[in-house]
Amino acid sequence: MNEMAKRTLRRIPLHLVILGIAIAWFIPSMGLLSSSFRPAEEISSTGWWTVFVPPTELTTQLYEEALTRQNMGQSFVNSLFISIPATIIPIMGAAFAAYAFAWLEFPGRNILFVIVVALLVVPLQLTFIPILRVYNRVGLTGTFPGIWLAHAAYGLPFAIYLLRNSIGALPKDLFESAYLDGASSFDVFFRIVLPLTVPALASLVIFQFLWVWNDLLVALIYLGGTPSVAPMTVTISNLVNSLGGNWQVLTAAAFISVILPLLVFFSLQRYFVKGILAGSVKG
Amino acid sequence: MALVVILGVPAATVAYVAAIEWVMKRLPYTLAAKVRPWLWLAPALLLLAFYLIYPSLNTARISFMNADSTEYVGLDNYGFAVTNPDMISAFKNNILWLIFFTGGTVILGLVIAVLTDRVRYETLIKGIIFLPMAISYVAAGVIWKLMYQYQPAGKAQTGTVNAVLAAIIPGFEPKAWLFNQSFNNAALIIIGVWMWTGFCMVVLSAALKGIPDELLEAARVDGANEWQVFWRVILPLMKSTIAVVATTMVINVLKIFDIVYVMTNGNLDTEVIANRMYKEMFNYRHFGRASAIAVILLLATIPVMIVNIRRFQQQEEIR
Fold it and tell me: Which residue in the set A26, A117, A134 is minimally distant from B128, CB to CB?
């Protein structure tokens, strides 16, 4: 037996384990996906896997119902308008702060950092009432900037925590040689820190985007029900409420709202590559 | 509008740093070194102060007051929080979550990140594991009700779990997964693991990609097998990221709410702490008790924080 064949044979258990996990993970979503193409009345009477046994009756009726509801197009655009700045603001703010926490000296650094991370645990429900009072006074309720800043603040503790860890793990020599070459903090940050933390930044972008995109509670509180600014989650939940018992439409609506987050995930996936740090420091 | 969103916001953040560094250059060196950190921290700290710290302090004060915050009641709310039977059951369940959710997500996330790193179809598999993260809690609730659905024995099962088990185990009795108190918490924790393993996998995988190939090759050339490479090279190098992920999951467990809320709403002994807080606040309108529970959640993070600070100090010593 040649080397290649031996290697392939040895790797069979590896492939089996990976495929086993992937199948187990996919089954629940598969159930939702196949249910979303079934006629509503069948979903509650037979199992979703019966679609794989002929005769199969598939229909896009649930998707049509979900898509033709008023405002779906508008709320898709709104969701984007909310999610993009609400992803950029906290990540940039967190990167600035993480750089200061990891590489700049100042009194009270550790205690301040502990406070920031402890804020991860604050239940968001507690913050709504005091903040809403201020929002109403200054007219931020129902506006995009109002919800950008709220999402930014809620995302900051985790973003700072994650970036503090990866920015802090960069080798000291990098900074020393840059400063010796006369680089400013601005140069160091944008030319060294950001490029070298790309994998961590990419994962943060994915998570923050997802949290904002899938958020219902924060949008309901700060945007109210105004259709002109409502994101998809709000529109979908209104749709479910107005349909009453017809929850099956939710299966289709759920898949419509999952498409964009998955695109973000797959497009950022290529930044998780080996050896980004490799060539930058020798030895 | 679109222009503001796509160009204006990123430009504003870069302009901020350019502006502060422009000012810094014109200040005497020692003064600049003192002021600089605070200007880099300012945007984050201002947002945190208003959106999280101010409401938290408010909460701490309300936790010593009665239901509608009209008079002080001392430690009564805390007394309630640690003696009420529902609260004790919530603490017990949160400990179950702490052990099995944290363990499950971190270990599975690590195993999947390491295994998929070795195959060509990595992106596809990671996409599948990540998919649940992209699904909202409401949709996840629908998915898992389809999974756990129960029909009495003898009838055709519509729930995936019962149908699969009935197909592979002869004489299997269908179970009401969400209602039977001996395993309904396990059923909920499995949903949590399903949703959050993708998170751990993505962060751990990003760290794994940061390990230079040469290091692993060197170990292999020296005769280490794959098992030794994992335990002696990969694991030590990923220690700090594993700690970050585990910390995030522990904090996540303390706050775990949505899964319980959409699946059982805490009925049949599945209550968790955050769900109790929500009920005290929005169902019973007892702001004092709700706030005391929130403060207890905050206090529970202190041990985790101490471990983290030690770790960051070590990180600084070795660099």
Answer: A26
